[in-house]
Design goal:
Layout lengths: L5 H16 L2 H13 L4 H22 L1 H9 L21 H6 L14 E5 L9 E5 L2 H13 L10 E4 L9 E4 L4 E4 L9 H11 L3 E4 L1 H13 L10 E4 L6 H11 L3 E5 L8 E5 L2 E4 L4 E9 L2 E8 L10 E10 L2 E5 L7 E3 L5 E3 L13 E10 L2 E8 L7 H13 L4 E6 L14 E3 L9
Parallel strand pairs: 3-5, 3-6, 6-7, 7-8, 17-20, 18-19
Antiparallel strand pairs: 1-2, 4-5, 8-9, 9-10, 11-12, 12-13, 13-14, 15-16, 17-18
Length: about 450
């Protein structure tokens, strides 16, 4: 599909689209989620328990790692009778998966096979897992069920800001999802008009993707006093922690509401945002648990129901949640550790760079890149009113914040450095763990 000429993709789009929405797994799960809306909580819990027991029994019968583990701890999945019994099973982490990869693969052939997926690696080495091919269709049923709250229809078009392999192209058309995927890597003042022309010509009803990239796009549109000609119905935010200020700006600019959900590449847990910043874990997608790591802060742990090729049981993610009445707030697990280091090892976190002055009045956005303790690049994407003399003013104000233990090389750039998956990070560290030098 990806190697097809662009004109052929558009011509065959309905066939690819039907491959998704006519898939038996997609339709089955979508119907389940629709029927669930009228079920009492007791029935929903009953279904969750049945799915959990099914994955436990399968893992014991066909996955060498779990067969050995369950025998060792005297855990009998056939006699599993209470959610509480899950506490007998040790947590699974990324390092354990890497060391036992082959032994975590099911010996039973899974219908339609599997494929390799990797995590983004934002907290370290990317993790490789095997996922059922059919899990793609199952998970999409959950995502489409969430999107319908924005009146999403099967034939609606999306323009998606996310990182994939683009080569020299600025965008790619994906006929499976009826979406135009645009490169967040190449979005800048220099390319903006090309993006706008293509998006207007495509005519999407929804914007989808990383909040950081959509926000940057909206800021550029504001700077150049450009509005999209296409009429949007909503915005779907994926894969990043939600910055409330950026979200408000995006919703106000495009004059539509946004929605988001929490999920991850390992496909264990999914949570839907019910209120701004407040989530509920989906009981049909997996069995969620919370491991306390600090006061009111818990690591998210999950046992997934969608993947039988490499089941992940009590998998401890790098993400953090906090109780919020009947809901949870969710954030990336390492978000609080991002920042810069002074020449003596001083740490400057996100809050240290909240400037309540006008030093960035002509700056669309900024990013810190650190190669050595006590030194950092500060990359600026600026508007047309920016004057190079403003850099001296920035240096003075930032020096006040960092007490002279951090020197900054401030540079104006056309766009930000993004992760391999196209995500923006305010802080990029090139320091090694042992001596804080490159």
């Amino acid at each position: 599909r990806d190697d097809m000429p662009e004109f052929l993709k558009y011509a065959m789009a309905p066939l690819f689209r039907n491959r998704l929405i006519d898939d038996k797994n997609f339709k089955r799960y979508y119907r389940l989620l629709e029927m669930r809306e009228t079920l009492p909580l007791a029935k929903i819990k009953e279904y969750q328990f049945e799915q959990l027991k099914q994955i436990l029994v399968h893992s014991y019968q066909y996955v060498p790692y779990y067969h050995e583990l369950f025998d060792k701890i005297s855990f009998d999945p056939f006699k599993f009778s209470s959610f509480e019994e899950m506490k007998k099973i040790p947590f699974l982490d990324k390092d354990t998966i890497r060391k036992n990869f082959d032994r975590l693969v099911s010996k039973k052939r899974i219908i339609n096979g599997s494929y390799i997926a990797t995590t983004g690696g934002s907290t370290g080495e990317p993790l490789k897992v095997l996922l059922d091919y059919d899990s793609v269709f199952k998970e999409n049923a959950f995502i489409y069920n969430i999107r319908k709250k924005l009146e999403y229809k099967w034939k609606d078009k999306l323009v998606t800001f996310r990182g994939i392999e683009f080569g020299e192209k600025l965008w790619k058309f994906n006929p499976m999802y009826n979406e135009l995927i645009v490169s967040p890597f190449k979005l800048s003042n220099l390319t903006l008009e090309k993006y706008v022309a293509k998006i207007n010509n495509f005519g999407p009803q929804y914007i989808n993707g990383y909040l950081s990239s959509i926000h940057f796009f909206a800021k550029l549109l504001t700077e150049h006093t450009i509005t999209l000609k296409t009429k949007l119905k909503g915005i779907s935010l994926i894969s990043e922690d939600i910055d409330t200020e950026k979200r408000d700006f995006v919703e106000n600019f495009f004059k539509v509401k946004s929605l988001t959900f929490y999920g991850h590449s390992e496909r264990c847990i999914l949570a839907e945002e019910k209120k701004p910043g407040q989530y509920i874990f989906d009981p049909y997608n997996g069995y969620p648990e919370q491991l306390k790591i600090a006061e009111d802060r818990f690591a998210i742990v999950g046992t997934g129901f969608l993947n039988f090729t490499m089941p992940l049981i009590r998998y401890k993610t790098d993400d953090i949640c906090s109780p919020d009445n009947d809901y949870f707030s969710i954030e990336g697990g390492r978000k609080s550790t991002r920042g810069l280091y002074g020449k003596n090892g001083e740490y400057f976190g996100h809050a240290a760079f909240n400037f309540h002055s006008d030093i960035f009045k002509n700056v669309i956005g900024y990013q810190f890149v650190q190669h050595k303790k006590g030194e950092s690049d500060l990359l600026l994407v600026v508007n047309t009113d920016f004057n190079i003399s403003e850099i001296e003013y920035m240096q003075k104000e930032i020096k006040k914040k960092t007490n002279g233990v951090l020197e900054f090389n401030i540079r104006v750039v056309p766009n930000f450095i993004l992760s391999p998956r196209g995500k923006y990070q305010m802080f990029i560290s090139k320091l090694t763990n042992d001596n804080n030098t490159p």
